[in-house]
Structure formats: C-alpha cells, structure tokens
Specification:
alpha/beta, Aspartate Aminotransferase, domain 2, 18% strand, globular, 4-stranded mixed sheet, 14 strands, 2 domains, single chain, Aspartate Aminotransferase, domain 1, binds pyridoxal-5'-phosphate
Amino acid sequence: MNLFNVYPLYDVTPVKALNCNVWDENGTEYLDLYGGHGVISVGHSHPDYVSKVTEQLNNIGFYSNAIQNPLQKELAKKLGEISNCEDYELFLCNSGAEANENALKVASFHTGKSRVVSFKNSFHGRTSAAVAVTDNKKINAPINKQQVATFLPLNNIELVENELKKGDVCAVIIEGIQGVGGLDEGTPEFFQDLEMVCKKYGVVLILDEIQSGYGRTGKFFAFQYHGIHPDIITTAKGMGNGFPIGGVLISQKFEASFGLLGTTFGGNHLACAAAISVLVIIEKEKLMVNASAVSTYFQEQIKIIPQVKNIKGKGLMTGIEFDFEVGELRKKLIYNHHIFTGGAMNKNLLRILPPLTVTTDQIDQFIKALKQEL
Ligand SMILES: Cc1ncc(COP(=O)(O)O)c(C=O)c1O
C-alpha cells in the first residue's frame, strides 16, 4: 500500500537522535533547530525521559479511562504548579487539533452557540471550525457546517466587538503567537481588550498555546506576557517531547459532567509518564531560563545580518524574515550544512523552533551557515 501523499519531504532519514542533534543512516550529524514542528522541548531522547517512559512501558503501558490512573492527577498537579495555572482543570487528549476541538465543544456547550471568531493567518489544526490559514484555500474550508468560523485581522478590537455583538459567537480562539501563519502576534493591549470584550458578551476566550506554550517563549505560556486570564488554554506539541499528548486547561467556571467530553487514548499511562518527565526536566534544567538567555543571544546575532529584514516571535519561537522566499535557503541549510529549519505560510520567513536545551554554540553554528549561504 502506498502512503496517502500529503507531505513534501526532505530526503533525510534520521535513525538516531540526542538532544539537539539527529543522525541519518550514513552517520551524518544534523543540528535540529525545528524539532519536528516544535515538539521537541527537552531534547531528543533525553536520558531521564527515556528511562521514565521505558520504566512505565515495562510497568503498565496500559490504556483505559474507566479505571484510576494516578499519573493523570500527578501530571495535572505538576502542570498547574509549573505553569502557574493551578486554578484550571485539565482534560487530557492526544493532539493539538483534538485539544482545540474539545475547547470549542466546551465553549459551545456552555454558551449554547456555535460560531467561532478566529484570526487571519491563524492555525488551530485540522479542526472543524478553527482552521484559518486564510491564504491557503486547501485547508481553509470549515468541515462542520454547523460550526462556522469568522476570520478577522489581528489587533482590531472594534471588528471583534462587532462580531460578538451579533450574539451567536461561542468562542474567540487565538494563538499566543501565530505559528504556521508566520509569527504575527496580538499586542498586549489587544489581548487585554479581547479578554474584556469576551467577558462583556459572555464569549469564551480560548488561548491556543499548542506551539507557543510549554516554556518556548521564556514564560510557560506566551499569553502570560500580557497579564490576561483566558477561559480555556490548549496545549500539545512540547508537552510530550514527541510522545502524542494534548491538554485542555479549563477554568473552574465551566462545570464538568460525565460524558461532556471523552477519549479512548487521552491521558493514557505512557503519555502521562512522558509528560510528567518533560515537566520534571524543564524545572530541573531551568529550560525556560535557557530559552530566554539563548534567544537574547540569538536575536543579537541575527539582527546584525544585513539581509535580515525583520525578526519575529519571542524566545525560542523565532521567525527570521527576508525579502525573498526561503525555500532554497532551507534546502541549502539542510544539504550543505546539515541544519533543520522550518518554513511558514509567509514564504519569506524562516521558522526556528529548537529544543529548549539549545546552546549558544549551536546558534553560532547556525549563524555561520546562514551567513555563508546569504
Ligand atoms: C497553534 C497550533 N494549534 C494547533 C495545531 C494542531 O496540532 P496537531 O498537529 O497536534 O493536531 C498546531 C500544529 O501545528 C498549531 O501550531
């Protein structure tokens, strides 16, 4: 059987990985500054993580949600403490799209409404309403006709308020920092106004922190730069360091009831063991501090390169913008210098999402390669 061919792939086959490096079948070493769309938070195959996941697998790698799984409670407690979100409740699932779907369900059940407001160039996964990379018609179509999204420009609170006034909106969903679309973000004032208008019209504010969360920006969640308190926060990617797991952090004002949400695999023992290990490592190795420090160095080095037109994002969620499309540059970085980087819907943007363990030496390695190719 052939694979249903929906991804363009580079001709590299990694067989081994450690921290920020991967090796292909010929033993060639690569520097991974993209972490498979930002999922590698604590570094590839971190020894503590490998031993925790292996121990769990040898113990009980078991899936069932009809029995007690103390690891879920341990994960919720640890996540609440580290993220400073102890006043939320946690629903566990398997991916970012699933986290957003569940967040939208909670909002829709709570308000009895179904329309969603989202933002141009946002990306919330292959979800029924919240796929909003508006320039790309192929993935723009809402699948579920009952739940339709309206896409507005970022940073225009009047337009948001005009939509909310109509009375049929259940949720506004926004990324802490836009990932796939190209690292645009709301201003602090916009986020604060958004919180205010959502409260005013009884609309649920969902912060999609699937890419911008888990310490990547130097704070646990990117919205924490803006002093707001969203109703729901969604997370995935870095949460399991590659092991599929997603989470919905739900404000206590939403009442849980049996059957409201559900999942077969979500919060299984192995996923919880992986996610607990990630949090332990983030804390023990002070990886949020590292993300801030290395990103400050990174930005200083990048901004003196004359061909760089703009630097976007925060922390280790960085976009380097040029006045040309970066497709060829990315190929040269992979094949000539063995460095993985990412692209975005903004084709002039190089997207860098390294493990939070990345070092300044590795940044130097990238800068040297980039300068050579430019
Ligand atoms: C902000 C954001 N939300 C949701 C998703 C979807 O996550 P997943 O691919 O795990 O379904 C992504 C994936 O890139 C994302 O960047």
